[in-house]
Amino acid sequence: MDIEKLVSKYVQLRDKKSELEAKHREELAPIKKYMQDIEVMMLKQMGELNTTSLKTTAGTAYQTKRTSATVADRELFRSYCLENDAWELADIRAGKSAIAAMVEETGDLPPGINWREELGVNFKR
Predict the structure, then answer these.
(1) Domain annotation covers residue 113
(2) Kind and range of the H or E element at 29?
(3) For the segment 65-109, what is each residue's pLDDT rounded down to a tens digit?
């Protein structure tokens, strides 16, 4: 096994992959833009017709509602949840860095946490 050749080939493949991904994004950009323009036109048409869907022989266009909720002020939101006992408004996720520090320091995990470590290989020039 020639380690130098394997590392060289990996770096070469990674570069080619990045190049293809960039080319792919570039080629898709006008298609995505055209699709977004059609969506805008269809929403406008649905609004004018006071409907939420338009059925054609080519297919059906229908409205969907996309939602997003992000925290703008963490402390304000936390205080609200505390004061109103409204924890259903929040997701609780494990803080990987803090848990890693705890495992490193004490060797223990907090209750209810699964921990997994695996070795991988990275390459750099």
Answers:
(1) no
(2) helix 3-49
(3) 999 999 999 999 999 999 999 999 999 889 999 999 999 999 999
